Amino acid sequence: MIIRRETPEEFSRIYDLVKVAFQTAKVSNGKEQDFVNQLRSSGNYIPELALVAEEDDKLIGHIMLTKTYIVNRSNKFETLLLAPLSVALEYRNKGVGSGLIREDFKLAAEMGYTSVLLVGDPAYYHRFGFKSAVDFGIRHTLDIPDENVMACELVPNALHEISGTTTDF
Fold first, then answer.
1. Is this model's pTM higher than 0.90 or not?
2. Is 9 helix (H, G, I), strand (E, B) or coil?
3. Residue 145 needs a FRET pair 20 to 30 A away by CA distance; which of 55, 61, 131, 138 works?
4. For residues 36 and 8, is the Cβ–Cβ distance under 8 A?
């Protein structure tokens, strides 16, 4: 398996990968592939943190980390949003998602980012250091259960004195 940056030439293949991957996901709104395009066209897209996993010239996984913010009355704290993580059904439970997350976290830390937010399954994401965002004083403005909105510190205590809300999921 090779993990590398996505390229514009494969955006349509990534769109299809994400769409098919989320057809068998535990939680999906059916629009994740469109969310990828929306994130790319936003000013928060970070090409260096949009990765694919491939094996034998076949795309088998995809991950994006994009900029988002935690806002309170007086401050706006930049963080990253992990959304979405996609792995082709036949490659699940083989380390593809873990490899993508670990590589993206390493790159993000090297670029100076200190934390990541996401909406997802706690049973999966806790192994990467994610905790409920409310434990850090971070809330989401949409009607998403607190246990599914999670945060992870790439740098110890990065969220120690950060609190507020986030809206970009």
1. yes
2. helix
3. 61
4. no
Right CATH for 2-166 from 3.40.50.2000, 3.30.870.10, 3.40.50.1980, 3.40.630.30: 3.40.630.30
Three-state secondary-structure class, residue 127: helix
- As to burial, measured by CB atoms within 10 angstroms (0-12 exposed, 13-18 middle, 19+ buried), residue 139 is middle
CA distances from 57 to 52, 60, 62 (A): 11, 9, 14
d(CA 35, CA 31): 6
- Terminal CA-CA length for the chain: 29
**How many C-beta neighbours within 10 Å does residue 14 have?**
22
| pLDDT tens digits, one per residue of 6-42 | 999 999 999 999 999 999 887 778 899 999 999 999 9
